[in-house]
Amino acid sequence: MLDAGFYQTDAFRFAINDRILELILLPTEACNFRCTYCYEDFLHGQMKDEIVTGIKALISRRINDLDCLKISWFGGEPLLARSTVLEISKHGNDLCAANGLVFISDITTNGALLSRSLVNQLWSVGVRDFQISLDGPKYRHDGTRLRANGRGSFDQIWANLLGIKESGLRLNVTLRVHVTTDNLGDMPDFFTELDRTFLNEDDRFSVILKPIERLGGKNDNAIGVLSAAQRNDLIATFGQLVQAKRSSSVTKKNEDHLICYAARPNSLVIRSDGRIAKCTVALRDRRNVIGMLSEDGFLQVQNDKLAPWVRGLASLDPSELECPWANFPITG
Q1: Could you tell me if 289 and 43 are in contact, meaning their C-beta atoms sit under 8 angstroms apart?
Q2: Closest CA to 276 of 260, 265, 291
Q3: Can you tell me the distance from the alpha carbon of 158 to that of 137, in angstroms, rounded to the nearest whole number?
Q4: Which residues lie closer than 8 Å to 98 by C-beta, 6 or more apart?
């Protein structure tokens, strides 16, 4: 357990600050990819108009009580619903600008639809941080990050990344490189290629090395999950090089005691059908549904369903702060 001094840390203050609102929005839960290790089921399509209206109303209702609004776009593939992303982002960005608030917006996208024109549109409404996944060099990537039609996706993503690089826009791109036992041996050469193409003398790009986990997908048993020893070797091999290139390896535990977004009461996931959740991984778990968003912008949250997600703030158990879904309490 952490000691009581944790209550005085910036991480704790941020987690309980009711003048910060983080909305993780799923404008669609459909996807144009069928990654072999994916855990999502794509049952819910694009966000209905009444949910879009409700989100905009929520932002309008809360704006005078906030210092910072953060909108994170997730999916599915959020850019399949680009009009929704642009509409809500513009609403939030404009209100924050008019009221002197900080507006932060990021998007997790597979990158296939991220044309130069769309990047400009997203940038203009305040979406300035992009996370895009790669599974190693083309021959590896195209075997796991498949389009819905079964074709590879590497060439289009790489071309779009080059377009971002050439744009000159002030933004941040995190290249999330997935690592398994299958592609572990490709990492040295692939990182060299990323460094040469994107990281070298361009501080807008960074890389995260992320071992793939078994998260409940239909192909979980086929995933070559890294052993503890392999993870340690990955950290040792790439640690100094990655840090030198302004990048970070999320295989290493955060020494400052990471508080997962799902463990913070000021962070909410709003799904495409208006359900309110806490976690973007546990999408098929009924315990992850804590309420509904109304069309007039009211959050109908059931506190008894919220409480288990934020229990770590009271217990100071690092495991409950870092991943509240792990060892989730059994509820009736």
Answers
A1: no
A2: 291
A3: 10
A4: none
Which residue in 210, 200, 225 sits closest to 134, CA to CA? 210
Strands of the 172-179 sheet, one edge to the other: 248-249, 205-211, 172-179, 129-134, 102-109, 68-73, 20-25, 267-270, 275-277, 289-293, 299-301
Angle of helix 49-62 versus helix 82-99 axis, rounded to 10: 10
The one-character DSSP state at 65 is G
Q: Indicate the domain borders of the chain.
A: 4-322
37, 72 contact by CB (below 8 A): no
User: How many angstroms separate the first and last alpha carbons of the chain?
Assistant: 27
Q: What distance in Å separates the CA atoms of residue 316 and residue 112, rounded to the nearest whole number? A: 41
Confidence grade of residue 250 (pLDDT, cut at 50, 70, 90): very low
Unique residue bearing structure tokens 């005085």: 8
pLDDT score at 232: 87
Segment 266-288 shows an average pLDDT of 97
Instruction: List C-alpha distances in Å: 176 to 7, 26, 110, 213, 244.
Output: 32, 20, 10, 14, 17
DSSP state of 11: H
Residue 10: CB partners within 8 Å, gap ≥ 6? Answer: none
- On whether the pTM is more than 0.90, the answer is yes
Q: Which two tokens stand for residue 221?
A: 């048993």
Give the gyration radius of the chain's Cα atoms.
20
The yes-or-no verdict on residue 262 having pLDDT over 90 is yes
The one-letter code for the residue type at 186 is: D
Just give the CATH number of 4-322.
3.20.20.70
User: Higher-confidence residue: 145 or 1?
Assistant: 145
Q: Whose CA is closest to 74, among 127, 125, 24?
A: 24
**Contacts for 198-203 with beta carbons within 8 Å, 24 or more apart?**
198/161, 198/165, 198/173, 199/245, 199/246, 199/247, 202/165, 203/246
Q: What is the spatial distance between Cα 249 and Cα 222, in angstroms, rounded to a whole number?
A: 24
